[in-house]
Design brief:
The complex is a heterodimer. By secondary structure, chain A is mainly alpha-helical. Chain A has helices spanning 9-37, 54-61, 63-95, 102-110, 117-128, 134-141, 158-183, 187-190, 197-228, 232-237, 249-258, 263-295, and strands at residues 40-42, 48-50. Chain A has one domain (40-298): Orthogonal Bundle (MetI-like fold), CATH 1.10.3720. By secondary structure, chain B is mainly alpha-helical. Classes of the chains: A mainly alpha, B mainly alpha.
Amino acid sequence: MGKALRPSSWLMLLYLLPGLSIYSFVVLVPIFSAFRYSFYSWTGGPKRSFIGLDNYVEIMRDHVFWQSFLNNGLMTVYGLIGQVGLAFLFALFLLSRAVRFKALHRTISFFPSTLAPIIIAFLWTLIYNYNYGLLNEGLKLLGLERLAQSWLDLSGPIVLLVSIPLSWQNIGFYTLLMLAGLSAINKEVLEVAELDGATGFRKAWYVIIPLAKPTLMVASLLCIANNMRGFEHIYAMTGGGPGNASSVMALYAYDTSFLRFRYGYGSALAIAIMALTLLIILLSAFALQRKRSTDGGGS
Amino acid sequence: MELRAELAAERESPHLMRFGKKLAMNAIMLLFTASCIFPLLWLGYSSLKTQAEFSNSIISLPGKLHFENYAEAIKLTNMPQLSLNSIRVTAISVVLIVLIAFITGYFVARLQFKGKRLMVIYYLFGLLVPIHALLVPVYLLFKETGLADHWYTLVIPYVAFNLSMPILLVSSYVTGIPKEIEEAAAIDGLSFSRTMFMIIMPMAVPVLTTVAILQFFACWNEFSFALVLLKDASMRTVPLGMSYFKSQYSTNYPQLMAGMVLSMLPVTIMYFAFSSRIIAGVMAGAVKG
């Protein structure tokens, strides 16, 4: 290779350094500093006292944190069904010759993904509102007035209720992701997706799903990562309430630090969230990968 | 093969797929698309009602269009100031993202160097890392280093958190450009940097445009880091300002809705102006991801 094709090492470093440093400063350095603070009791003032592993011991016993963790898990499950699952179905429909207005469906359904999550959360707070909500109004029009609720005050189904806006907003994105993955599959094979009767669905199950597995895997991993990091929707819609019924890990760490000023414990929570999330992503990647190779249906 | 036979059978009898089934699939898709857009349309037309009109009938269209909701919302949110802050942060972030992603993506696509694989994995880590777990640590770091509460504060996390996908997109795009172009440039005596910026960068404009639009959305919409890193009210971005607006004036729904519509306007215009390119870009990124 000529000299012009390969710059000197110094020049290469010079080009890569700005990106690497800004990225490291925001992604890597805080992880290390949080790790250090996690061994302290600290209210934000100049005094920090070293308390060893006490914060981590407290996390182990902190039922609000573990409830938040479970809520993240539950949201992930709802997300896998309501985002990845439905998106897969819609993508199959959109690839079918029978469906009209494909461009319109794609364009409109992706639009909500481009909007600010915080504004979407406000919109859904309005939809769920007791007196002025679209949902209760719709129920009234259907003659189901007795079902009208102050939806976001229900602690039972609250995690499902806050997961619906997430699915509503992101389903278009996952549909595009599926479409991209499925388009890479041979067109002839895809004609099988013309779902006609039970045999059609069986064919979809046995033919398309194995071929779409890499795409489904990427989508599932993204969906898991996105639901484990959820924050804004919950912050804006319920603030974790009623009680702690809809709390998620990131929100709990936020409250601990910014409302209760326990920065040491908040840092320990950050480390715990990081570790748990990456563990779950790794485990699911491993599980999905394994399933793919044992099925032998890859591509 | 059984599959082949079935395919053939299907092609011979295209009428097998009954009319009803077709209708059902179309109906499901139309219902889905309608449910995606209806809440937003409701938001749009409700923002033009009076408060009384809205509470009388939540779902009906406005009788007279009350644009004064918008005037009030602009005044109460101090929208010009919020927009200015958002535009500044977003514009600087997007330019930096495009530049850094181009250089890094080009290096990944074209050069072999020690630690390249590690660097790619390191950047990919950014797609999976629970960034909101970093809210507290990033806040502490910015407070300690004195980086919080400046006009440029948000540029730092916005660039850092939005590099991963663009780098992937650029590197896959550059891989598709024939290597002969650089070889020819080298024969003509162009230096490495000139070749990268003056020959390849113009050729990568399509992917860079996609990156710019998608990152414009990401930066314009970001709320969480704005929430923890900005205390000074004069620095607030649109989503942050809207959050304060909502908590203060949440009883006047049409007015709140007018503010929400305003905050979505730039993204909406951008989206419908470039939707086909945006969709193609997202799909290209999906295949790479």
